[in-house]
Amino acid sequence: MKEWWIQVGLLTVPFLAVYLHIPPPNFSPALHTWRSSGTFFTFRGQQIFYRDSYGAVGSSDVVILLHGFPTSSYDWYKIWEGLMQRFHRVISLDFIGFGFSDKPRLHRYSILEQASIVEAMISHLGLSDQKVNVLSHDYGDTVAQELLYRYNHKRTGHINIGSLCLSNGGIFPETHYPRLIQKLLKDGGIFSPVLTRLMNFYFFYKGMSEVFGPHTQPSEAQYWDMWTALRTNDGNLVIDSILQYINQRKKYRERWVGALINASVPLHLIYGPLDPVNPHPEFLDHYKTIIPKSTFTVLDDHISHYPQLEDPTGFLNAYLHFINSF
Ligand SMILES: *[C@@H]1O[C@H](CO)[C@@H](O)[C@H](O)[C@H]1NC(C)=O
């Protein structure tokens, strides 16, 4: 029993982790404004946050924005006004487990469920018969691929997709390189509950700053907003479950890549080429080969994984150009 202190040390870790479970930071005024301009609907007993803004008169076009991991609908704040000048309705949601939505523990998070949540929201908003344009990023790309699959196959409850614009995301598992922190949390096994509790602003900041270009880094206040949204409703504690989407992409590769190959709606890709998760030129070459009918926009060399935040003007122009092309 010489090593009794090791055992005591190991026993202390979970208690320490519980102890470190400090309350989330307060909302900044900007984040508070975002939250109060949205509302909630209920999906299978869970509260889902969404925003639905009425924009340009004289247009009946609707756009729905699907955000990435591990952030939220707040990713779209820089292009929201610009979209409102073109669209009649601009709609976004926080997926379950993200942003201001509920984040149930002991829940099997899945892309399939997220797609059902989007369909439920569209139905809730009375838009089931209306064509909707889908604009997605990262994790949202995968949800969009599932929505497209259901649309292609006329599945009950499917949304009527008018067009799909993807941006930097793991569209193909074979050209996707998850960050170390994602792999650690995804495959942490019994350590995941400790790791997710030990996550703090510093680790979050380190991880996120790697997927923004060096010249397009968010301000510290913006990083705090992202972290605050994540920490709301103890979101850090469900990250390991959400991250199983990386395995789901492999499992459903044929279905989700096939949905793009088989799509009959206009497709576009907006790509920040400095992305370490979906690197250039490997990702783009692969995309062009597999989905030749899609058009694409490559943003400036210094734009990385969050193009709508790093180059909102370039991103918005590329999107509007696509929308006005069909
Ligand atoms: C794509 O279309 C082919 C031919 O119609 C079909 O066999 C295949 O199942 C479709 N794939 C998906 C994922 O929808």
Which sheet architecture does the biggest sheet show? Answer: 8 strands, mixed
C-alpha Rg (nearest Å): 20 Å
Task: Report the count of strand segments.
Answer: 8
Q: What is the residue-averaged pLDDT?
A: 94
Strand arrangement in the largest pleated sheet? 1-2-4-3-5-6-7-8
In total, how many domains does the architecture comprise?
A: 1
Bound molecules: 2-acetamido-2-deoxy-beta-D-glucopyranose
| Helix percentage | 40-55%
Structural class: alpha/beta
What is the number of helical segments per DSSP (H or I, 4+ residues)? 15
Uncertain segments are none
Instruction: Please report the distance between the alpha carbons of the first and last residues.
Output: 75 Å
CATH-wise, what's the superfamily?
Alpha/Beta hydrolase fold, catalytic domain
Give the assembly state of these chains. Answer: single chain
Can you tell me about this structure?
The chain is an alpha/beta fold and 326 residues long. The chain has a single domain, classed as Alpha/Beta hydrolase fold, catalytic domain (Rossmann fold, 3-Layer(aba) Sandwich), CATH 3.40.50. The chain is built from 15 helices and eight strands. It has an eight-stranded mixed β-sheet with strand order 1-2-4-3-5-6-7-8, with helices on both faces. Helix 3 packs parallel to helix 15, helix 4 crosses helix 5 and helix 5 packs across helix 12. The longest helix has 16 residues. It is globular and about 75 Å long. The protein starts with a helix and ends with a helix. The relative contact order is 0.15. The model has no long low-confidence stretch (mean pLDDT 94). Bound molecules: 2-acetamido-2-deoxy-beta-D-glucopyranose. 2-acetamido-2-deoxy-beta-D-glucopyranose binds next to helix 5 and helix 12.
